[in-house]
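thread: overnight batch results

M.L. [08:02]
morning all. the overnight job finished for the chain we discussed friday. pasting input first so we're all looking at the same thing
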Amino acid sequence: MYSLVLYDSCGNTHTGVLFDHDRTKRADTRSVSHQTAVEHFEISLQTPSGEVSTAIGVPTSFVPVTAILPLMRSLGEEVQTLELARVRESGQTVSCQKGCAACCRMLVPISAPEAFALANSIDRLAPQERERLLSKIDVAQQHLARAGVLPQLSALAESPDPISDEAIEPLNRAYYALRMPCPFLDNEVCSIYEDRPAACRELAVTSPATDCQNMTNPTVRPVPVAVRISTALSLLWADLTATTPRLIPLPLAIDWAKRHHAEQAGRWAGTELFEKAIDKIGRYLGQERARRESGG
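M.L. [08:03]
and the structure it wrote out:
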């Protein structure tokens, strides 16, 4: 059974992936710093590997889409913790460790909210560190341009139409064939670890680490992912902006965020973002349930 249950701060239960905002909003929201009202919910999320339950506070004020990222990342990590626990209980060992960065040569797709948040994080860095990272991104883009891959990546980031996984696969392979380190990788360690994309948080394998020297090797055994948060965030952004769901190649994310800076100025009620985000997670879980039940 894959379901999602929401408990509001009065203890009332709302089941399903969508719920009526007027019914769930309560008068007992409390004020916190800067006069921000917060509505409290307890989420109970049934995943393929068990239940995730957590209490959260959702601002009722108008906030940017990046405000939902901490919640989405936290939920994704809790769901994936259950997946990791299940594979360990089956006797398998997760071989990923700090400094093992073979996967950091793969094409990493991120959502628009993640791109905005990453650009904001880099803007907050000390000038010298910011310029160092931007220089590495520029070098990476030059490498991609010489390899003839950059135009395809740019088209992917700006595509007005949805692109299937099957259509992207040749580009994934062409990118990985370059074995180009992620521009945010320093001495095989992620320099933006706290802000790393959801796709990076979700990838783990139970096959020997040596197999990861070629991530296309069929012997590589990835841990199943119940919810791909980048995809959920991409669907959320499309819903909020009435645009096409898109995923942006990580080396192009900062430039993309700057070109679309005006779109980041949008503000939505925190509870609206919360409801829509939970809806996307619930829908993804439903698809994942169907896939696993069909043996896919």
